[in-house]
Records
---
Amino acid sequence: MSRIVASPLLSVGFVVLAAFSAAAVVGTLWSPPPLTHDEFSYLLAAETFAGGRLANLPHPMGVHFESFHILQQPMYVSKYPPLQGMFMALGLLLGKVSAGVWISFALACGASCWMLRAWVGPVWALVGGLVLALHPQLVSVWGTWLWGGAAAMIGGMLVYGALPRLLARTNALASIMLGLGVSAFVLTRPYEGLAACVPAAALLAHDLFWRGRVLDGVRRLWPAAAVGAMAAAFLALYDYRTTGDPFTLPYTIYSEQYAGVPPLVFLPLAEATGTPNGSAAVSPHAAIREFFAPGGFESRPYYERRTPAGFVRGLGEKLEIFWRFFALVALPLPLLALPFVWRDRQVRFAAVGCTWFALALAVETYEQRHYAAPGVALGLVVWVSCLRAVTRWRPVGRPVGVALFVGVLCVAFVEHGVMARSFLERRARSPLMARPGIVARLEAMGGRHLVVVRYGPRHNVHTEWVNNDADIDAASVIWAREMDAAQNRALVEYFEDRRVWLLTPDDLNAPLRPYPAAAWPDGAVSR
């Protein structure tokens, strides 16, 4: 073990192997299909990239294929930045889409070990990296879930691993890593990534430029700038292929077409296009209108958190989500040692950076666990520094702190293991778990199939069945929303070589049956 600790390459490799093994075991034993809106969107991106394309042409029947977090116009693409989809595309090329998520998680944990070596030394870098790699909830969510989180975490680890190395001396490798870290932010979560970069940028500007070391700063940072420029050029190309404008993200187009509420609670509501909620009101599908309507799931947090009381309630909800995911009861206990390590300039910097990042999350309209991924690096520095101080505690001349360290980790892993199991069990209860079985049944019949989906009046908008492959026409099974008689007839005529089925997922007695022409009621509008 001493040889692994002493070698940067071996220690990082050891953590990468541990993280990949943990994610692969969990992902193999429990490998659910995509279940959430976001997962289907990322899967579309992965299939697009794996097919050697940046975007898919809009489909003539695209109005039947509308789904959440997916653009049908001007191109058929995911709304999200591309890096998560690129990792998943790598998994598809390797034969299993989730393998790409395992790789991203392993790289993030390996980067955490590299980062920590510059902050707390090699021994505690290995400890911190392994804690991250074996954290049950990180493994079960960011390590296996197609929604991801690890790709953005890579960015934070690289930025804050490069920071102390660049402040110490000219280091081309560290500068390249800084550029890669910033690029990961740009290609995953730009807003949270920008917030995570602010403390690092402020320190670099102060130590390298404010003190008059301008030429030295340029010499240290030009490799990072070159890497960042290449990432910006790729993103401009991606934007151009997906939206027709190198400076307009698919996310922006999607927000204009559907969302209508800004991602930050202090921003004003965009000018409406037809209704107070924006262009989503023109969608012919009731489920989509319901999702985006004022007071609906997508817009309700914005309206609620614009008031002081609602903003405070929102902070409580955010805190609960992040606390239950990262901390629970035992894991934060080492932070009680923070007053004793506060004199350390590096710890103070990381703690202040965490505070700044928390403020950036506080003003977001929504909250999800992976929003915090870019700031994990700073939190890990503070936590490992406190943990190191705890192990040095010898109040009676004995290593009491070491025993506390072992006890805290054991209890914490049990806590988070229970929470991870609960999360996996909740996911397993989704009605969409039946979707792959339906596809398998239809494929076993031979031929090609079109499934027309009709939702009931009490349909749960979070259970969305209409999601399709990147190459819709080539898919063996296509999913489409039922509309009025004329549009349904046009859909069936377009896919005249397919056997047509009616799926009523809210009818448990007869969810799938042949689609009769008599089932085309004039004026019927799908949910």
Note: DSSP finds 21 helices and six strands in the chain.
---
Amino acid sequence: MKKNEKQTFLKTSIIVIITTFLMKAVGLVREIALSYYFGAGVITDAYNVALTVPATLFEYVTFGISIAYIPIFTNISHRHGEKKAFNFSSSLIVSALIIVTLLNCILQFFTPWVVKIFASGFSGAIFERTILFTRIISWNIYFLIIADIFCGYLQVKDKYIIAVLASLPYNFVIISSILIAYEFNADILAMGVPLAAFAELIFVGIFAVKSGYKFTLNANFEGMSEFINLVIPVIAIVISEQINGVIDKTIASGILVGGISILAYADKINSMLRQLLARPLAMLLYPKLCMYAAQNDKRNMGKIITKGLKSIVVLIIPIMCSIQILAEPVVSILFGHGAFSEDVVKLTAQALALYSIGLIGYSAREIMSRALYAIEDSKAPMFNSILCVITNIILNIILSRFMGIMGLALATSISGIVSAVQFYFILGTKFGKDNLEMKSFYITSLKTVLSTIIMASILFIINYFLLNDWAKISLFIIAGIVYYVIGRIMRIEEINELTIFASSFFRSKKKNV
């Protein structure tokens, strides 16, 4: 990247990450509300499984659309104009709705058998409630599909902030449903999910129309063959990963009552960190990767991939290490209220610490997978995902026998790291080691690890003498300062760029004043 491109990327990244952080904070309020009013027990286990069932059956449709829509819409628009691209969008919406309608009819009829697959340890009241919740929640997919297409269009138009803000109305409705369910009827928890998805659709739909989206009834299958070729392996990826999640929950349901919820709470914190840092970077880099892919410019693609991976390493490794030390106060402050007991806090903290080990692997995959999707290669990510799932299943079986539900969290982390390493070598073959600037990546990684070790040593010593959870949480700030100073001393490129950007920003503000 050129200097001005780096500054623009950094500025946009900071804005998107801050916005994402605020949205995740709202999402965290949602999880805190659920844990406060319902704790970890029958209702939350039923609710979490009910959320997982339709996601497993339908997520491959939404994920496939989010991956394949942007490059296909862009290509059609470039070759034939936006009118035909909008026709393609309409055809895609109709086709997707037909597919999910068939799947939803099957789910509604076979719900008891499907739930038994997802949580074989459930019986009696919890089993019946999970069936009811699943049947209600499954209707949210109709709204989410159209919302995903609108979000894809907004990203094409560089409206990244609006795409990120889409979760705001969703979370607002979910939080409201939790409060109402606690006061009146727990079944309202499930009803809030499709209502939340509808609110999200209205929000992104309004901004998509303002950005120029045109509705059309003309069918246009131009680009549909490319879309199908790209999306079929993506579907296989999602199915394989969802099977992996089903196995996790099935094993957890037979180990410990509330075990599914404990893993869910821990994974949500871990996933939030990944979505806060890795997902925005992947979203920003994807259009550029698609642009250079269309030009067959592997050199610039390699530079963008390396830039993204170096950013991930510099951001994720110190956070990953800090979570290892401060997992319990984090969980205690976020969820340790109301029905969420102290024992559950400790178990959730242990699971979070183990999940966070794999944070670097799964975050790196966000960037690397987009690079392959940009060149319309979804088969390599598919095989990589299958490897990840197989590794996880084997480790689940082995580690759960010795570590209980904690073995499931550790297995997930190890499989993510193994998958990321294999992914990186795939990129080396596809783009060339010179284009990926591997030497630069290794040097940055080494400097980051050394800086993190020093930071973690200081953090561990200070944490040992503190007793208050809020005081311990404040150590994240101290850790950040220490890491920044050491990173500057070691001349980590990304930290130096951040310093230059901050200096120029404050200088410009000073001049304006």
Note: The chain has two domains: 42-222, 259-513.
---
Amino acid sequence: MGLSLTPLDIVIFLGFIAAVVTLGMLKSRHEQESESYFLAGRGLTGLLIGISLIAANISTEQFVGMTGQAADYQGLAPASYDWFPAISLVIIAFFLLPYFLRAGIYTMPEFLERRYTHWARLIMAGFSVPVLVLLVACVTYSGALTLRTAFVGQRLLGVLPIDLYTGSWMIGLTAAAYVASGGLKACAWADLIQGTALIVGGALITWFAFSKLGQTPVADLTPAGENVTALAPTAGAWERFTTLNASKLHVVLPRGDPNLPWTALLIGLWIPNFYYWGLNQYITQRTLGARSLAAGQRGLVLAAWIQLFLPLILIVPGMIAYNLYSKEMRAHAATDNRPALERFEAVRNLPQPAMELFDFDKGWEKAQPDLARTMAAYNDAVREKARAEKIAEEDLVRHQLIGHKFDTAFALLMKNVLPGGWGLHGFILAALLGAVVSSLAAMLNAASTITSLDIFKKYLAPRASERSVVFVGRFCVGVFVVIGCLLAPILGNPQYFNSSIFRNIQELQGYISPGILAVFVFGLIFRRAPPLAGVTGLLANPLLYGLITFSYPRIPFLDRMAICFFAVMVLMLLFRLFRPLPQPVEFRAQTTVDLESSRGAFWAGIVVMSLAILLYIIFW
């Protein structure tokens, strides 16, 4: 059954969205110049920056993906995606942001031109735009998945079924209209409401999830581990949570884990963190719009403090969702598995095996042990035939079967644990839709900024007027959202992607993030590295990452990132040693922004870093 909304829910939902859009539009009227439209006139305060960073970062991508990972075997391990930023944000605030604001840049590719050459700028821009469009599709899909799960069996206006297609276009078109009209200033002011609502909404979900856990009969709960001590019927919610999930309350996973091995905590996870928070355009665009260096630093440190507490509303509810609704997750997986099972029945008894493999996870194998053995034997026959015919395994058609649809965890909680009649369903749905709009607006604004300034203005029309550049940015928003809405439903097909949307995003970004981070870090440290070093580093990373991915697929993707990062650094070091510049590159100030650092933000940053380290000691 879908989620039923009361009249109060609908009023709160519509009122919230109207308030967000109205505030954003009122704060960003008549934005026709590049600096005003793309960087909010460089007038953002620390509070706006900090909340906007969180709102741009947290979306249904996190609520769906990270909650789903926690519902799966990973448990507390994905908290590293929140606790690492609590450290990296502080480092970025005091070691990277001063360089970027001093340079007076609009985009991160523009900085590479200042350090290396315009070719480095063009390459990074060419890599960044497709990745941002893919992120648009991922966030759109995760929002549409939440709507589909919450409103299963219902129709929009009594006509259109609320499925992935309808949900994707609803979300995408709303976001496109929002960002195209208002620019970054509209995003930042709307984020002030949406970011706050997200945190409050997530806290409410956590509160009522614990309440539901404490009230549900013990016999109806699903433990995360195999050997859990029997709980007394009178056990409280916290005792149930810690006992049922004792095997998940650790941030460390085995070395061979494909998602977050302990080796990644030493090296690999730092790479996507510093890239995402320090060099990723849709995040850094907020700090580039700071009214001063001190305001940018205060915003980054505020975001670090919020990141420290996000696992309470992203990770903990996911573990509870599995305890409460593992059967529902299995039912959703059965629906997704149907095409693959039908295909297997069609080919299993053929005289010669079809050149197709049928992969399955441990959850599906446990639920279907006999069929899993039959399928494994069939896969062995396919591989033997492939070897005889000299066909590479990666060229075979692959089908995926999953035991649970873990990405439905948050939607199941929203539908089942919130009490009716209070308007909470309307508030949570409004906050989630606002999160999608906020994140999509940030991504669309970033993609259109790079396309307009780093490609159109730089190479296609150097003499274009300010109005023309802004018009191109708005046009690109429409193009990119259409592409994202067309791609979004495909991301829900387990035949093409694994069952975790959050992991899909992290893994695919490995094609660019290690190389970009290496080029920035190396260029700032080694000022005599030649321009060719930056160009070569950017081009080498996707080739090396792709080679490792297809040749050694069992290497966890975060370890792949670490290998690529250090390989690119070594390659660039060779250029520095054998073809150094005669004089080091100087970063001259090209801005009127106040560059005085914030002492208060510095000490607040030291405290938040210390707390993050303490949490790792406790939950290691």
Note: The longest strand covers residues 356-360.
